[in-house]
Amino acid sequence: MGASEVGSIFVGQESALKLMTGKVLKALGREIPFEDNLSMRKGKMLETLGFDEFIRIYFDNIQVL
């Protein structure tokens, strides 16, 4: 499970069915449901924000190899 799926929460059979349906659609190159797509986008944005904040805080201590 990647960072883009951070927002996924599994609660009961309905959520599992939605997850499987989304995975199959994604594998076939079809559009995934808007609700799931929004959740993945939020997870990716939070990951990016966390990385940017880390760089901002520790910028002086980071050395390029």
Architecture overview:
There is one protein chain. With about 60 residues, this protein is mainly alpha-helical. It has one domain (about 5-60). Helix content is about 65%, strand content about 0%. It has two helices and no strands. The chain has helices at about 10-25, 35-60. The longest helix has 25 residues, at about 35-60. The protein is elongated and about 45 Å long. The two termini are about 30 Å apart. The model has no long low-confidence stretch (mean pLDDT about 70).
Main sheet specs: none
> What sequence of helices (H) and strands (E) makes up the elements?
HH
Evaluate the radius of gyration.
Answer: 16 Å
Number of strands: 0
Average pLDDT number: 71
Helical proportion, percent range? 55-70%
Structural class: mainly alpha
- How many separate domains? 1
Distance between the termini: 29 Å
Low-confidence runs of at least 5 consecutive residues: none
How many helical elements?
Answer: 2
Overall spatial form: elongated
Percent of residues in beta strands: under 5%
Quaternary state of the chains: single chain
Defining traits:
mainly alpha, elongated, 65 residues, single chain
Write the layout of secondary structure elements.
Elements: H1 12-27, H2 34-58
Task: Please provide a brief summary of the model.
With 65 residues, the protein is an all-alpha fold. Helix content is 63%, strand content 0%.
